[in-house]
């Protein structure tokens, strides 16, 4: 099982490295639910996560997550102690703290420019993360950390990039303008109009024509035969008349 998990993690990491330019050290944003699950399942996040992701990692959180853990009291005191050991990333909620899930979602807005991983056990937060392209999701199942497979949103985003070949609209317009200046657009249009499909004569039509010629030739031959018979009859009649006159 451990080998298969490593293979899946390596495959998923290759997807994000190749298509979304994720590089070491990998920045992992953790919330209180993930820290609590790690404590309960006796998982050493700092020691185990780099080996699982096959690269150096930076474990980080936000002030809003720490504030939320403090407000929950003794039930999550151990999770708060774990989260306090991580680096704190600046969020936009200095004066008015928000929930940990809302804060983490704000950190991956606008295409996840800082290439954050999201580590959470909150199912609602996980579903919202899956709706954003290029955001890897980590969670804990049966005493093990798991990197979720790329979401359909990420797969669709990569497919559209490959089909469009990453050509911006302004570059397409500039290419059209350059073609118009050089007169290439008109030449291309003229070439396209001159193109004709190659095609040979229809063999069936040829056969029909041959039949027509044969039919047309047959009556002419019959006419010739009739004329010859008539001429013979005339000559015979003339000869007979001449013989009678001589007698």
UniProtKB/TrEMBL annotation:
Keywords: Nucleus, Ribosome biogenesis, rRNA processing. The keyword DNA-binding does not apply. This is rRNA-processing protein UTP23 homolog. Residues 179-247 are annotated as: Disordered. It comes from Anseranas semipalmata. Pfam families: Fcf1, UTP23_sensor. Coiled coil: none annotated. One of its GO terms (cellular component) is small-subunit processome.
């Amino acid at each position: 099982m451990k080998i298969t998990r490593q293979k899946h993690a390596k495959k998923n990491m290759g997807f994000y490295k190749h298509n979304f330019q994720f590089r070491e050290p990998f920045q992992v944003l953790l919330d209180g639910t993930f820290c609590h699950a790690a404590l309960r399942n006796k998982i050493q996040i700092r020691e185990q996560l780099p080996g699982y992701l096959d690269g150096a990692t930076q474990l980080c959180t936000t002030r809003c997550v720490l504030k939320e853990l403090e407000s929950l009291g003794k039930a999550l005191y151990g999770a708060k102690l774990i989260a306090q050991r991580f680096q704190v990333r600046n969020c936009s909620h200095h004066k008015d703290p928000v929930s940990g899930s809302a804060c983490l979602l704000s950190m991956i807005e606008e295409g996840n420019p800082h290439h954050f991983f999201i580590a959470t056990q909150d199912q609602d937060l996980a579903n919202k993360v899956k709706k954003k392209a290029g955001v890897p999701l980590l969670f804990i199942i049966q005493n093990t950390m798991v990197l979720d497979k790329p979401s359909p949103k990420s797969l669709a985003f990569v497919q559209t990039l490959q089909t469009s070949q990453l050509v911006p609209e302004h570059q397409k317009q500039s290419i059209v303008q350059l073609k118009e200046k050089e007169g290439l657009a008109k030449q291309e249009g003229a070439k396209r109009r001159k193109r004709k499909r190659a095609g040979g004569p229809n063999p069936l039509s040829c056969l029909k024509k041959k039949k027509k010629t044969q039919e047309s030739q047959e009556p002419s031959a019959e006419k010739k035969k009739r004329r010859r018979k008539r001429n013979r009859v005339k000559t015979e009649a003339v000869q007979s008349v001449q013989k009678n006159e001589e007698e």
